[in-house]
Amino acid sequence: MTYTKCFFALFLVFCQSISFGQSTKSLDSDLAKPTTASVDDQSDPELKGLVWNRYVAGSYVVLSIDERQGRWLLNNIEKISDSCFTRWGLSPSSPAQECRIFCVPNKSLLKKLFNLDESKAEIRENEDGTVKINVIWVCSESLTYESFSPYLTYVLFSNKYPLWFSKGAEVLSHSGIDTSTKLADLSSKFDSEKILTLDSAKYFSMSSGDKKTFDLQAALLCLMLRKELGQAKFLYFLKSLESDSDLSDCLRSVYGYKDVQDLNLKYGSYCSDLSKELLSNKVPSQYFVIKGAQ
Length: 294
Known about the structure:
Layout: E1 2-7, H1 8-15, H2 36-40, E2 51-57, E3 60-64, H3 67-86, E4 99-104, H4 107-114, E5 120-125, E6 131-139, H5 145-158, H6 163-172, H7 176-183, H8 192-197, H9 200-205, H10 208-228, H11 231-243, H12 247-255, H13 260-279
Parallel strand pairs: 3-4, 4-6
Antiparallel strand pairs: 1-2, 2-3, 5-6
Helix pairs in contact: 3-5, 5-6, 6-10, 11-12
């Protein structure tokens, strides 16, 4: 573990070379820089004298304005990482490529430095589709295991698993109450086949509204497969998808569905029934919490 203090002026040069809020292909082109006026305006009292504290442990690099918050992240990152996996019954592992975490103390600085309104995680890819770097921007006003877990889940799972699982697991990593509120009035746009086969290139070409809908519907599919049909079959399904490119064969061998259309019918009924139950306040928030089977 190393600890270095980087002065804010140097960071301004660094952040001009990074794209924010764009697709994973845009690291070196079409840069969406932080709001230039805010970042370059040294007359802003909130930007004067900022110092970045840098901590490194394995593939994790934490850059935090608040030293205490940076050390908290460094000391707890492995525990949070392990819990992201174990709640799904998976074996813990670290990102193969660097995971860079920018931690700011309030939403005002998150906006001024990175032009973001809320915490965010991104996977940056090389031209061949391999992971170049993982980036998380987090506001630490209420930094806890629970609040940081969704962003780390997305990074960890995107490095190992299909898009639908990484996005669905990210949603389900929020508290049960938050998740149930988001899913209560969700309108169906994607059937299960589209969810299971959508790739990252198509995902990043979608509108922000469609991305949000996809994320929530992927969470519902994860919830149905994992909560209703069990951890063992869910893990077997993930493993089968790694070795068999035929989706219908995997569904048939693991779940007994005749084909993808059969899954679509089951998924559609599940979403409809759950939506009615949610609107009637008959679903406890704990239903949306994923815990590893004992």
